[in-house]
Specification:
This protein is of the alpha+beta class and 150 residues long. Helix content is 55%, strand content 12%. The strands form two sheets. The protein has a two-stranded antiparallel sheet.
Amino acid sequence: MTPITALQLLANLIKEFEGLSLKAYKCPAGIWTVGYGATGKGINKDTVWTQHQADEQLHDRALEALHDAINASPILLHETIERQAAIADFVYNCGIGNYRTSTLKKRVDAGDWKSAQHEILKWDKATINGNIVALKGLSKRRKIESEMLI
């Protein structure tokens, strides 16, 4: 049996937490989303994807998130695939800009995984109708990521 890679583990995490919608919808934060959590330019209320498009975008965006995470925190190159996938999942969900400026990144870069576990849990909120609210799905996602950093 072939061992799983960080990219495969990351893709599985994304599928679990994002789910799949081939027709665009607004996420709880009011952002148009399609596929496995794809957002951004060109995605609007009329966006409809095929399964093939969703799978291609998942692969490409997961690979980009993994690449961005490792470039931002080169220590990840020498860490477990679980740690790589957890940080890349955070980047996929919250964005590389948020990761680059976070205390989480500082803890990862220092190899302080216990503190990194604590920091990642703080990122379970979204702005809904102008209020910052903890979301159950994000809390669950951060808990799983945190456990992968052990």
